[in-house]
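Q: Predict the assembly, please.
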Amino acid sequence: MKEPVTYEDAVDLLDADHKAVKKLFIDYDALCEDAAPVEQKHALAERICQALTVHAQIEEEVFYPAVREAIGDDALMDEALEEHAEAKAMIAEVRSMKLTDHAYDATVKKLAKLIDQHVLEEREQIFLQARNAPLDLRGLTLPLLKRKQQLTKKIASRSKEAT
Amino acid sequence: MKAVVYSGPREIEVKEMPDAKIERATDVLVQITTTNICGSDLHMYEGRTAMEPGRILGHENVGMVVEVGPAVDRIKVGDRVCLPFNIGCGFCENCEKGLSGFCLTTNPGSAGAAYGFAGMGPYSGGQAEYLRVPYGDFNCLLLPRDAQEKENDYVMLADIFPTGYHATELAGVCPGESVVIYGAGPVGLMAALSATVRGASQVMVVDTHKDRLQLAEKIGAIAVDDTEGGGVERIMELTGGKGADRGCECVGYQCCNMHREEVPNLTMNNLVQTVKATGRIGVVGVFVPEDPNAADKLEKRGQMAFDFGAFWFKGQSIGTGQANVKAYNRQLSRMIEYNRVKPSWIVSHELPLAQAPQAYKNFDQRKDGWTKVVLKPDK
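A: Predicted assembly structure:
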């Protein structure tokens, strides 16, 4: 049987990602405070990086173009893309670092701050305007979800190959 | 327009800001006549939230409507209105159920919007000359005819009176029951007032500030001074060793012990101890999912060492969260109109907007006699 789509609309789906990643960042801080083993921290950091990468990609491929067309605020959407680029660069930095690097934790925390700021702006500007615009946010849910599942699957099979 | 602006931790400025205006057809523009400083503003003032500098504070607002958007039907220019601190849309799943504090559309992603509050949407606060009110027809409470005369009473309907009432509702206070309330700040005092009008037999209020405890005594509550410790013992004595039927938490995550050191789990664990087995606890004090600037390790991640074993063993239950102001403000306004209550009894200072920075400072330091500040932007 086909599973029903549980998200009310595209905003709900995307913000569920935000909430999930926020919790992972709080958990990461806790691991640092508790002086947890580096492997544990690294696994969590990698989970965060994966989640953010998939999230950014589906936003850029599906959500942002539709919103840009509906609200016509190019400056706002360009700024969001710039923030994504900044986040991606930082994710690449985290991934390229040695686990034992002293700056590893600090870089993950820097990433957390950047994402916090981006999420706040996205919620208060893009999501709010998108909801008030003549845009089929419900209709966008399925393409977002499908693409997300596809990308997540790809990552899972790639990491299986690696091990 | 002049407005009270957050510029950074413990920095408040009164400065010229762009005029608030109608942005959407459903908006209402209100000229603010009274706006309060709330205890929750202090979390932002102290830099304990993600509040961005440059934003206007203030979520306890009363004023006169000066303009309405083209899609506003009910509210008219000239109406005296009180604005619930929560901004609801009126048509989402939660608003439909009366849970307007958890509106799903006014602050996408996060549940609930408010004026001038960290993490609760892009809305400016009302410690200013003008305020933009989204979904004006839904959010404005039209005040009774004695609105101006009792303005300092009606302004309490924006937040603290409904919030105090919500604490007693979450705790399920019934006539004849005993209630212990932690915190004699404005919300705790409003919870004491609410418990009294709900017919509680004993209303015990715990705090360490004598000026505030005296205000609790003025409405017939039993003041429990915890300055020397011993508050818990006193409650048990007053309830024949059983504990109170109901408990209310009106302090929140920055609760302090008698030495003014923050102990985030203090009030919650004292409630477990001083509420009877099977009793219910209502928590309206603010607690946060993360608090990076806290000293306490658990508090940083939004956790606390809660006496869950005792809580379970005693079969207690708990209700939490911010008040849905619209669920209560209409009835409570009638109580003011018919002189059943006078919530302005807690007002200690009535000041012009220009004196907001000093007022924040004194209120934050819990200076003796600074219980509740009402600001008058038109004076």
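Chain B touches chain A at residues 24, 50, 104-105, 107-110, 119, 121-122, 289-290, 292, 297, 300-302 (CB under 8 Å). Residues 160-171 of chain B form the longest helix (12 residues).
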